[in-house]
Amino acid sequence: MSVLRLIFQELRHRWVGALLGAMVVGIAVALVVVALALARAGEKETRLIQRDVGLNVLILSDKTDLAGYWARGYSDHSIPADYMDRVHDQAVANRLVPLLKQRVEVEGVSVLLVGIEGERFKGGQVMKPVFGKVLESGQAVVGGTIARLLDVAVGDSLSVLGHEARVQSCLTESGTVEDGTIYVSMVDAQVWLGMPGRLNEIQALECHCGEEVEDPLGLLREELAPLLPGTIVLRRQDAADARRDQRQLAEGTLALFSPLFVLLAGALIAALGALNVRDRREELGVYGALGHSPLRVATMLLGRSVVIGCTGALTGCALGEGLAQRYGPDLFTRAVTELHTGWPLWLGALLGAPLFALIASLPATLWCLRQDPVRLLRHG
Asked: Rounded to 5, what percent of the chain is helix, strand, coil?
């Protein structure tokens, strides 16, 4: 009788134990799949929320009077606009947005005029824009308070520093400095303010910093200073630290619970294997008495564990992904795509679960091999 046929006969003969083992493996794999999917979705959801809180890195001219900057909302000193062509060659800041800001009067109302362009990404990445505004020449985006005070709507024209700008959109009042802002294209702002080829601010989003980085601001300055001479880098500590702490919490939760689920499954599989061997001492003794070699008996027992592991892995992946996709969207509305585990996780489970089941059943199998068949029959 071939070993493979012997394994399947063994599974059929002891189908209750095999089914129970597959259920244990399946539940463990499902828990790991759900934990991975939810942790990944939670991390992305948190990152999106923290991202939407705003950009947390400021780059200004090093001649800027910071007290005046915080009072007025803009710097009196500028930096070259071509600095934006250098920001690709670094790894500490992303979503860099160039700005040219100055306070002006529009129809008797003091507004913060902001020239803006689209975001630039580190390393030449292509990402969905969030912060930068891409405006054509002659277009304007008007803050909610300014739109209300000037009584303008989409399609109306505004006279800004003697130049006409058509209102592309009006922002909803948000209780922030944006309510008193008019955004125009960078080219228009540079011409209207008489500052061609200049910026006075770059805002960015700090990239991931792990716990090993004790001084994130120092790292930012160390990386950006050689690329952008004559600038000072500031970090909005509260927003940046909240983003960093939340990300590390999500990663730590995933790192803690996934191994616990795996260890629990291993303990249960080992216990089931030990019970299976103990309850079948007489049968195993008969195998030995009939001339089956210890290696053949061990192959049967370990092969049984591998088949149980494969079955449990497939079942667990399907169950885990189903649970994650069923209940995950109720928790994470913006990171639903992260709830799809994909084939790499299925492949990992299909390779890892049988191996883990095999290792967990080794102690009981080795114990069986050390026993004398006659002694097993005597005590069976």
From this structure: 60, 15, 25
